[in-house]
Specification:
The chain is α+β, with helices and mostly antiparallel strands and 170 residues long. The protein has 3 helices and 8 strands; from the N terminus they run ααβββββαβββ. It is globular and about 50 Å long. It starts with a helix and ends in a 5-residue tail after the last strand.
Length: 170
């Protein structure tokens, strides 16, 4: 009979601990689920819905454009499909972005884009991602973001998709 008291005490302690643990688990279950924007922010991913080139020999490429390289924007861009596909850029750190870039007919290209390889990143800079991509009227450019040094009032460069020929010309 002496051995039943310690066992009963242990069982009561386990029930009490399990009750506390259950309340903690149930409290966690009442919190709202993670939203897609929260998850994208945590994973450092920026996404856009973009039109793709409609010509079989053309694809998008990611480039840094200087302000004087921008073409007029507005209207309905020419040479692009009416359908949109998802472009994603993931910040890997050290000014490198991993991309998944939609191409024609559901194809995708993937790779890394080194921001400071094409643009001088001396000093501190910031990227203002556009809420909606902005297309040139001829459909050859699609602006995604504005790159500015902190001390500059105006953007020093733009992150853009540029339509290029995928087949070499003879």
């Amino acid at each position: 009979m002496k051995t039943t008291k310690p066992i009963a005490s242990i069982v009561l302690m386990l029930i009490a601990v399990a009750g506390v643990g259950y309340r903690c688990v149930s409290a966690q279950q009442t919190s709202p689920p993670v939203t897609v924007p929260e998850l994208l922010r945590i994973l450092r991913i920026t996404t856009f819905r973009v039109h793709t080139p409609s010509h079989a020999g053309a694809v998008w490429d990611i480039k840094i454009l200087k302000p004087d390289e921008l073409k007029p924007r507005g209207g309905t861009p020419k040479g692009l499909t009416t359908r949109t596909d998802l472009l994603s850029l993931r910040d890997l750190g050290n000014d490198v972005y991993e991309f998944t870039l939609p191409q024609r007919d559901g194809a995708y290209s993937q790779g890394n884009f080194e921001l400071c390889k094409e643009h001088s990143c001396s000093g501190q800079y910031e990227i203002l991602w556009l809420k909606q991509p902005e297309y040139s009227t001829d459909g050859s450019q699609c602006l995604l973001g504005k790159l500015s040094n902190f001390e500059d009032e105006h953007p020093s460069a733009y992150i853009a998709l540029v339509r290029v020929n995928s087949t070499p010309e003879h």
